[in-house]
Amino acid sequence: MKAAIINSADATPVYGDFPEPKLADGRQLATMVAAGIHPIVRALASGKHYASKSTWPMIPGLDAVARTEDGSLIYTGFIEPPYGTFAERMAFPAAMKFLLPEGGDPIQVAAGMNPGMSSWLTLSARKRDLQKLGTVLILGVTGMAGFLAVQNAFALGAERIVGVGRSEIGLRQAAAKRAETVALTGDRQSDASVIAKALGKNAPTLVLDFVWGEPAEAAFEALGHAEFEAENKTDIAYLQIGSMAGAEASVPASLLRSRRIRISGSGLGSASMAEVFAQVPVYMKLIAEQRVEVPTRVFPLSKIAEAWALNESGRRTVVVPD
After folding, report:
1. Is the fold of 2-99+292-320 the same as that of 114-265?
2. Band (32; pLDDT cuts 50, 70, 90)
3. If one looks up domain 2-99+292-320 in CATH, what number appears?
4. Labelling 270: which of 69, 124, 202, 207 has CA 20 to 30 A away?
C-alpha cells in the first residue's frame, strides 16, 4: 500500500510502498479519509516524545477519520507501530471506533479532535465540578490547541479569557473569538507585568499552558504578584499540557505559599481511557455543528514531504488520499 514513511529519527517522510497492515485480534481494517499533522505526531515520529516507540522505518500519524469495510465514516487512532494513520489503510482497535456525527466534515474532525480534546477534557471536567469557569488564562493561545481552547472555554460558559502568545496572526485569530490577548516579548519581567495587568483584579480559576518554559515562568511571576480582589482569590488550577517553549520551568516557592494553586499535567497518561472515550463523541458533535472553527490546509498523501515541511501558524495541515 502507499504510505508516508519515515526511515530515521528527525527524517522527513517520503511517499512510498509499505507492507499491508496485519489484522491481529480485536483489530479491524479501514481506509484513510483524512489525518492531521499535529505537533505530537512530529514528536512521536522523531523519537523525542515520552510515548514514542522509536521504531523506524515507520508510518507517522496518531489519529484519523477513516472508512470501514461496511462504508461507515469513523474517527479512530491507536494504530500499532510501526504503522500509523498516514497510509491508505490502517488496522484500528475495535474499541477505538467512533461514528462521525451526521453532517460532520472529515477534514474538520481530523484537524480538530487532537488539539481540541487537549483542552476540552480539562474544561468540561472543571465546569462539571465547579458549575462555572470564570476567568481562563491560556498560554500558547496562538497555536491550534490554544485557538480551540478559546472556543471551547466560551462554549462551556467561561466569563473571560486572557490569551498569551507571540504570533501576530495567532493573536488576531484569538481576539476574533473574543479573547483578550497579550503579546509576549521574551523578557520575563516585562511579560509577567503585562500578564498581571491583563488579568487585573480577577484571578483565573484555570490556567491552560500549552508552551511551558519561559512563558510559564512569566505567568508564575504574574500570578504571584498580581493584586487580586479578596473575593477573587479563588483556587487556581494550573494545567501543563504542552512544552513548545521548553521542557523545564522554575516554580517560585513564594507562589506555592501565597496562592491556593494546584499545578498538574494533562497528557496521554493523565486521563483514563473511559474519560477520553466518553468525551470523544461530545467533541465531534461540537465540530460537526460548527460550534468551533478549525482552520485547515489540505495536502494529498503523495505530497507528504511538502505537507510535513509546512508549519503554518493559524491552520492545521491535513493529509487526504490521492
Report:
1. no
2. very high
3. 3.90.180.10
4. 202
Whole-angstrom distance, CA of residue 13 vs CA of residue 305: 6
Task: Give the span between the Cα atoms of 314 and 143, in whole angstroms.
Answer: 7
- What would the pLDDT profile of 269-287 be if each residue is shown by its tens digit? 666 778 888 999 999 999 9
DSSP conformational letter for 151: H
Query: Which three three-digit cell numbers place residue 313?
Result: 501558524
**Nine cell digits for residue 75:** 474517527
Sequence spans of domains, the chain: 2-99+292-320, 114-265
Residue count of the chain, please give it: 322
Q: What distance in Å separates the CA atoms of residue 199 and residue 233, rounded to the nearest whole number?
A: 12
Alpha-carbon distance of 8 to 60, in angstroms, equals 12
| Cell numbers placing 41 | 505526531
| pLDDT tens digits along 192-219 | 999 999 999 989 999 999 999 999 999 9
Q: Which CATH class for the 114-265 domain?
A: alpha beta
